[in-house]
Here is the input.
Amino acid sequence: MKNIHSTIFTTLLLFTAYACGPTHDCGVLPGPISEEHILEHVEVIASDEFGGRTPGTVYEEMTVAYITGQFEALGVEPGMPDGSYTQAVPLMGQVTHNVRVSLQSGSDELHLAYQDDAMAWPAHVQESIDVQNAELIYVGYGIEAPEEDWDDFKGVDVSGNVLVFKNYNPVTYEDRFDGGNRLYYGRWTYKFEQAIEKGALGALIIHTDETAGYGWDVVRNSWSRERFFVFDDEEHNTEFSGWLTHDRSRQLFEMAGLNFDDMLEAAESPYFEPIPLTGVRINASMDAVYRSIDGQNVVGKIPGSDPELADEAVVFSAHHDHLGIGTPVEGDSIFNGAWDNASGVSLLLNLARLYQMEPEDIRRTLYFVTVTAEESGLLGSRYFAENPPIHAGKISANINLDATNIFGETKDFVAIGYGRSNIDDILAEEAENLGRIVKPDPRPEQGIYYRSDHFSFARVGIPALYPNPGTEYADKPDNYTEQVAEYRSKIYHTVHDRIHDWWDLSGAVEDLKLIYRVALRIANADEMRQWTPGDEFEDARIRALEEASQL
Here is the structure.
């Protein structure tokens, strides 16, 4: 009998050791997670076979089929009200060609090389653009922000002109524009929206690496291929949008007899007024072809177990699109998007797998959404957030997974938007439980909060968390932070974004554990998450909650 008891005890001990081993943390996760689990999905959807996952192509269809198949295999239910896994996103695809742009001063004409000097495309669905001898006006940042006591237009009628914008938003005031961090006012999308609102003929953004947060190659790679937008019937007078390189922008101002650096500095003043670029005209012509397509969001759900809270939800998001196929670089033409964002999709699928192991322990419904056309301006997530399967006022929080940690384990965890909602209370507690610390965005000047899909949820009032890789690396060389910066710059939006030997997914594993715990607590809390009082999205949250209460 003693030997039998000893054998049973030994067996239980071995089982416990296995269950609580490095791939199965007792009290943290209900099942195993490893680097191999994460790599498994990345190897598939970031392969050459998936062709860079451009929306509206057979490659997106393959991606959607793969994700849907994974949901089905896991037992994750279809998330759309019609009983399907997919939400059609009505997109218009635009390909621009025959682009010719030049600046003219008297008899002198400066031709701008498409892609090398300037990017330009029709602002809506125009098939042909021919703007000749148009006047240009420099509008500084082009910002109208009453709450910041800021107006760059000062009532000046700029309609019928081509507007030249400085990128970013003012940076010289501690009490304005979040002390100089990039807000939505500093995003390129805002600039182009302003041009349309003001009835401008066109819009050009001055590019510098500093104000954009990335190099000209990112602009060229992002805008030289097929572009997408959500189709609508709205008419406007703006003919084209585009970018100018730093050097060509300097020449533009010099042709107008203005000092380029002085003009950039002038935009920092709240007393700035629009400045005509006297004596300079712009000529811009181009053709475009279009196709109407349905991009696809993929939506799965795990129903909540609490009858009183199951009609509320937590939404995980990750974009499954990337940049497709482009001009070959060293013989490689496929933008595989392994980091951006096959890695985020893999985290989402692994979270779904883990939550599905113990669905009875989850009070609110969990939605797992992979969205299309993020690279074209957050189009898929914006469409989902504005057309969700349940009302936005019923969604407690969004957790967005985009370009996860491929650089190794860190002692810290970066939360983009840290301090903006009471998600952070739970995040800080769970991080401490796992021996980690939470840090805010180390580069707030780049406005990352407005550059990924969580922003679409925030705009409709849903508190949103965007995890980012930490910066305090464990067991790495002293110069590793510099190596990471080099890795990032080499792969971001290039054909080099594929799986590399230097990938270290140990950090992604640890981040997933923390995200799992945080989301579980949000799903099981008695109250839904809220914005910090005074946050720019608080009013949208209040409206959403009021609307939902009337349903």
User: Anything to note?
Assistant: The chain has two domains: 36-89+292-549, 92-290.
